[in-house]
Amino acid sequence: MPRPTSFMWLAAGTLFFGVSIRTSVIPVAAWLALAFTLRAVRVLPAFPGLAYVGLALYIALAVANHGYIPIGSPAYFFAIAGITVTMIAPFAADRFLASRMTGWISTLILPMAWVGCEFARARLTPGASWGSIAYTQYGNLPLMQLVAFTGIWGISFLIAWFASIMNWAWEQSFVWSRIRPVTLGYAILVCVLLGGGGLRLALAKTNGRPIRAAVVSFPKDMFVPGEVTRIVEGRVDEDQRPSMDGKIAHLHDWFFENTIREARSGARLVAWPEQSLLVFKEDEPAFLERAQRLAADERIYLAMGIAAIRVGATRPLENKVVLVDPAGKIAYSYLKSRPAAPEAAIMVRGDSHLPVVATEQGRMASAICFEADFPELVRQIGRGHADLWIVPANDWEAIKRIHFEMAVFRAVENGTPMLRPTSSGFSGASDPWGRVLGVTDHFSGARTLISQVPLGSVRTVYSYIGDLFAWLCVVGVVASVVAAIRIRVGDKNRSIGGLHEARSGASEDLQTVGSEAHQFREETPPMQAKSPEEICRLFQRYMAEGDVESLLSIYDSEAVVLTQSGEAKKGQGLREQLASVAAAKPQFDFNIRQVIQSGDIALMHTDWKVSSPRQMFEYAIEVARRQPDGTWRWLIGDPFTVGKRTAMGTKIA
Questions:
Q1: Per DSSP, which regions of 174-261 are E strands?
Q2: Inter-residue contact 364 to 387 (CB < 8 Å)
Q3: Tell me: the pLDDT tens digits for 57-106?
Q4: 142 and 267 belong to one structural domain
Q5: What's the CA angle centered on 165, arms 160 and 168, to 5 degrees?
Q6: Which of 182, 202, 222 is the last residue of a domain?
Q7: Rounded to an integer, what distance in angstroms lies between the CA atom of residue 271 and that of residue 323?
């Protein structure tokens, strides 16, 4: 049975995952979530250990995402299952690939796989970049500057790498002399990134030309619950049309009156949230003409989130943003291309080309609400050097904070100031470095936001290279898989001689095959342990592959091992003992309890579990000796006589 501490780490990891999903107020929760969950993955047996982890993550995700994903059950639970698969995959990659790598290289498997899975979700699933662990670090402005170079993937990599390095150090018993190069290197990297981010903030220009911007939000209690939904879905009967026309006309007047008030108070840009201005398609030309006159009369830029409805059409909704300049001309009219789940069946989709248009105040650009969750789509504004990004949005209370924070990350990635007018959420403005200039909460009763937004773009590396860092992580995972397969195939080829030796039992064949295996090993030597703990990983691997020759390579030339009967085996006897066990290719899992080192000698206390071909639990004491070349090998092994051994459910003293 797995040790209780294994489930303790799993419980801690999933708890911190739940906390990090719900809020960015405790950013350290994400770092601890990955670290503790990885610890559970490594100390639990591969099977059913990964199943335990998957179940725990599924429960955490299902609870933490409640209210975030706008779909009902059972589709919600299927969606959570899909997300769980993409989250357990990096842990599985670490479980099966890291043990085949040596030294600090093994610590890269988890972060590369984690970024690869997040990237795949962002590109291939409807949820876009939702759920990226990078968003949990909102508010850490020095760290957030990293996204201007790598996108959010750099932060995700850093968090996952911390988990991997911490577990690697754990397996080295936190002996400073052994973990110093890797942990110190990581610490220096983090300090450089944070210092560089702080310097980028310190050198940020604060004298950009400002524009006074105002957000006029959707009025409260003008429509009864469910009425707006029926309108945008085009479900308006003929007998309802007169009353609807009256309410919509009142809505238009409300927006125009409040816009005039803000313009005469000094605003040079007034923005309305997504779908705030409801208009039937046949009435749209007259409405736009009125909006153009207002903009020209007040000499303002007017950015309108419009829902144009074709009653009775299969897809009745045109979700758009229209920008009118101070001359009364339409600078652009953009149709939303990436619908959120509730809009997918009713919305006419645009062409995904975000507008970036030159005006007297600079280049202005837009995306609409959910589109801001797609990093590659929004990168168009960075490539277009937009001086202001206007993002009309319409959220709901559960996501109001996280969705605003995600948009701020897009602004930093592309070096663009942002104005985000929002209904049912946070309206806000930020500069190109992620510093929030102003924010209001629709649910607090605020219907207007006033902010001085400095115009001007900042060149970012990400806007040029895009998701290159994420692609490199994908390539790294693929290369690791290929390398692991090649190592496995090579090891099998090298083990043929040893397996044949174990089966034949003939002394003449033993000498011949051993000589051939030795010659082959000289050409392609097996991997050697750089630490006492690494011997366990190599033993686990070589036993699973039935590789007798490689097994012998992790034992000292003077090694002695006690058998179950108490007989000491060394030399040829040790070879035969290992061959008889390795012939079955048993699956070993281990948990190193303690390593006590003095100079070139290390005493190891290890729990070993054999899951196949028969179940067995062993508590072993081993002594390892450092070799002249700096590698470690076992000198003495006692897997039976000290502790108790359980086989097939029966305890044997």
A1: 210-216
A2: yes
A3: 999 999 999 989 988 889 999 999 999 999 999 999 999 898 777 778 89
A4: no
A5: 130
A6: 202
A7: 9
